[in-house]
Amino acid sequence: MKKTVLTFGLISGGILSLMMAIAVSLSDHKNMEMGMLIGYSTMVLAGLIMFVGVKSYRDKTNSGFISFGKAFKMALLISLISTLMYVAVWMVLSYTTLSGFMDEYAAAMIEKAKADGATAEKLAAVKAEMDGFKEMYNNPFMRAALTFMEPLPIALPLSLITGLVLKKKEK
Question: I need a labelling partner for 163 at 20 to 30 A (CA). Which of 1, 106, 124, 146 fits?
Fold first, then answer.
């Protein structure tokens, strides 16, 4: 089980990290929504790798049988490895080639509020919120924690679905 989890976790993490790096480096603050769409789509694709990994283990190593608990656990472990790779790559990028990302993100949120017709009061609130977020994001532990939480809304349900779909009891 360990070999399967590690192998498919690294494959999933590689896909997730590579696509995140490409999407972020190609986007600018004017099309951040497109970058987010690409990012979450990639998370779903990388999440499907956990399904393939658990199915591979069930069919090739475990005689075609696996309990829900074991399948769910394997899927969670694969997504954990994948997410840790994602966080590690983001941490390196965010301190090197993408060091201005948070400024661009804040500018995009302010521009979006302007485009949505925000009042001067609302713009000031958005700017204050972004300033607070940028300050919080300067803390490497908060940056890592926030980055870790990005794939969770995709990974957790996919792990649950993987466990439910792939469970197969011995007769």
Answer: 146
Tokens describing residue 59: 């069919």
* pTM given for the model: 0.84
Q: Which residue type is seen at 128?
A: A
The Cα 15–Cα 52 span in angstroms is: 14
User: pLDDT of 114-148, one tens digit each?
Assistant: 888 878 888 888 899 989 988 999 999 999 999 99
DSSP for 57-73, written as a single string: IIIIISTT-B-HHHHHH
What is the distance between the alpha carbons of residues 85 and 115, in angstroms, rounded to a whole number?
A: 36
Contact 25, 140 (CB under 8 A): no
**Residues 102, 74 contacting (CB under 8 angstroms):** no
Distance of alpha carbon 45 from its chain centroid, rounded?
11
Phi first, then psi: give them for residue 142, nearest 5 degrees. -70, -40
Q: pLDDT by residue (tens digit) across 5-47? A: 999 999 999 998 888 888 777 766 556 677 677 778 888 888 8
* Angle of helix 68-95 versus helix 2-26 axis, rounded to 10: 40
How many C-beta neighbours within 10 Å does residue 165 have?
13
Quote the tokens at residue 75: 């899927």
